Amino acid sequence: MESGLAPHRCLVVGIAGGTGSGKSTLARRMARRVGEDRCAIVTQDNYYKDLSHLSVAARARVNFDHPDSIDSPLLVEHVRQLKAGQSIVSPRYDFSRHGRAPGGIEIPAREVILVEGILVLVWPELVSLMDIKIFVETPDDLRLLRRMRRDIADRGRDVDGVLGQYQETVRPMHDAFVKPSSRHADLIVPGEGDNQVVVRFLSTALKSFLAEEP
Question: pTM of the prediction?
Fold first, then answer.
């Protein structure tokens, strides 16, 4: 469905960083400050490949922090469509059972597209669509603490499971793919403490761009 937005008035902002770094929080705060009616948020976590053909035990053994676990062609295509002024229906992922949930999430085309996820600066095809690239840098101990709280509260995990996954795949993949992708960032911002100053700075810059004459 066409939105009527001219492609050159659309700004794609990539927000990457390690697990628990504060990417999603930064994206939501920026959207609220710029105007939620002007922003669309695309979350990489919804683009995990559908593993419904595998047993539950086999799904649990998948390395979800490797780029190959993501349906990156679909993610790239959806961002390309949004940038062209077309709405999309994003997949919806259920982390409690390691599979895609029924239905999807309708995301309308907006003036600002915020694409957030640990690996969004890894794929050249996706990076090439971005106008601004941000990497959220947060101390490892704080990221682990945030991940434990989230996975236990929201994803049905226990402490041993979270720590085991972090040691076996999360930390190694962070060092191999996530951290090196920061070299593609235009800005590296802190993810600890109150980042309202960062939010105000970035939001002001986005609103300034949107106010410019074509």
Answer: 0.88
